[in-house]
Amino acid sequence: MARKLKLHDLECTLIHETAGAGLGTVDGEHKAWLPKSAIEVERTEGSNVVVITAPEELLVDKELV
Predict the structure, then answer these.
(1) Is the residue at 17 inside a domain?
(2) 2: in domain
(3) Which of 4, 39, 47, 48 has its CA 20 to 30 A from that of 13?
(4) Tell me, what's the pLDDT at 44?
(5) Is 24 domain-assigned?
(6) pLDDT at position 30
(7) Which CATH number characterizes residue 27's domain?
(8) CB-based contacts of 44: which residues, under 8 Å, 6+ apart?
(9) In sequence order, what are the residues at sequence separation of 6 or more whose Cβ sits closer than 8 angstroms to the Cβ of residue 16?
(10) What is the residue range of 22's domain?
(11) From CA 7, how far away is CA 37, in angstroms rounded?
């Protein structure tokens, strides 16, 4: 039986981006790389603050929640 992923929305500051990942922070101190293949990003034009939707397990693993 397939396990259902628990998704969370998280507002963070996008620091740097590559073709395959984004480096973000939620508190200005702890930074984490998130693979684009595992997240959705909602952008606001002209801002580096984004809302990402990602699996809870990934956010916990990266210490963002």
Answers:
(1) yes
(2) no
(3) 4
(4) 87
(5) yes
(6) 92
(7) 2.30.30
(8) 50
(9) 22, 23
(10) 7-61
(11) 14
Is pLDDT of 1 > 70?
A: no
Cα(16)–Cα(1) distance, integer angstroms:
37
Give 65's pLDDT tier (boundaries 50, 70, 90): confident
Phi and psi angles of residue 46, each rounded to the nearest 5 degrees, phi first: 80, 10
Encoded tokens for 61 = 């693993």
Structural domains of the chain, count: 1
Beta-bridged to residue 32, according to DSSP, are 24
Q: Does 1 reside within a domain?
A: no
Residue 60, H or E segment? helix 56-61
CA dihedral (38, 15, 49, 10) positive or negative: positive
pLDDT at 56: 94
Alpha carbons 32 and 64: distance in angstroms, whole number: 8
